Amino acid sequence: MLFSWLRHYALSRSYAQTCRLLNSYQQTSKNYANILGIETSCDDTGCAIINENGEVLAETLHSQNLIHLRNGGIIPDVAQDLHRKYIEPTVHETLEAAQLHWLDISAIAVTLEPGLPLSLAIGMKYAKHLSRQYKKPLIPIHHMEAHALVARMQNEISFPFLTLLISGGHCLLAVVQDVNKFQLLGESIDCAPGEVFDKVARRMKLRNIPEYSQLCGGRAVELAASKATNPHLFQLPLPLGDYKDCNFSFNGLKTSVMYQLYRKEKEHSIEADKLIPEANDLCAALLMTTSRHLVHRTQRAMEFCHRNKLIPGDKKQLVVSGGVACNNYIYNTLTELCYEFEYQIYRPQPKLCTDNGIMIAWNGLEKWQRNIDIVTNVNSLDIKSVSPLGESLISRVKEARLPTKLLKIKVKL
Ligand code: KG4
Ligand code: ZN
Question: Could you report the per-residue pLDDT of 382-401, keeping only the tens digit for each?
Answer without folding.
Answer: 999 999 999 999 999 999 99
